[in-house]
Amino acid sequence: MGTSHTRAAYVTELGPAERIRVGDLPLPEPGPTDVLVHVDAVAANHVDTFVRSGLYRTPTPFPFVIGRDLTGTVAATGPGATGFTTGDRVWCNSLGHGGRQGSFATLAVVPADRLYPLPPSVDPVTAVAALHPAATAFLGLFREARVRPGETVVIGGGAGAVGSCAITMAATAGAHVIATARPADAPHCHDLGAAEVLDYRDPHLFTHLGKATPDGIDVYWDTSGHHDIPGVTPLLARGGRVLLTAGISARAEIPIGSLYTRDARLLGFAISNAATADLADAAALVNRLLAAGALRVRVGEILPLDQDADAHRMLEDGQATGRLVLRP
Ligand SMILES: NC(=O)c1ccc[n+]([C@@H]2O[C@H](COP(=O)([O-])OP(=O)(O)OC[C@H]3O[C@@H](n4cnc5c(N)ncnc54)[C@H](OP(=O)(O)O)[C@@H]3O)[C@@H](O)[C@H]2O)c1
Fold first, then answer.
1. What pLDDT is recorded for position 23?
2. 96, part of any domain
């Protein structure tokens, strides 16, 4: 495909953010169904820090380029990589785990079945900020919880990246959405489609939640990972679903009788395990919403690739307010 090097943020062993180096690496050998992408923007995710540190175990061939999301432009295509032409604007959100090299580089090799067109006129920074949380929101709401119009969906951490996308998607699907967020973030959640926004720090949160959901909660998703399963279970409607996607080291008390007598289910998933077909289903909705300007995830900072270690530290220290986008 012509180019032999990429400038990348990478590690040679798992460990703290200090291990991240930025420099030239040989391009991995692109296969016949791969696409070489000139990277425009990437976004730092919590999961990138879990992969880098070893908290989330996945094959990481060294030197291992960090990061799973990118927006960019097709630089070259393998002979079997159908559907893409040099110059196409594209995106991916599943690099940097499962043995695949990551996206934090000037050039990245992407399997064609993990690459999607970026709709015309969509800004690459706005888009890259939404790719990972929006696909997560799709998988949670539709593949796992199978949200139906008219259902009551509670989104905890509604102003966060996953929470914002989940509010948008649930409201667009016709659900009655109630979010939790700090009061300053309530207008953002309302704008996205939440009918009601409650303060997650309120000691009487579950009392207010109960009053706001007289017919019970069909889907409860605390996207922040601060689970209170005993608190929410009495509020679940029959057949209620509780999504578990965060809190990698968290433990919770499970009120077993209260759950099974409601036909309720706890549904955990990690997007890292999603099949390419599921990711493609997610991409179709993500692209429809991006094209409509409907995916609004707050961008905190736009940094140069050299500051990837800083971005990881900000995520790990809880200092990031909004998505951290990096530009190679
Ligand atoms: N399983 C998966 O496939 C998957 C996929 C994507 C992400 N995740 C995980 O999901 C989590 C959230 O990711 P994100 O990108 O959405 O993070 P984020 O943008 O940092 O959002 C987290 C939100 O949670 C809020 N929050 C903090 N404490 C809370 C509490 N006690 N109750 C309710 N909300 C609270 C934060 O509000 P403040 O700003 O007020 O602090 C913030 O708005 C991360 O742990 C990430 O690893 C999992």
1. 98
2. yes
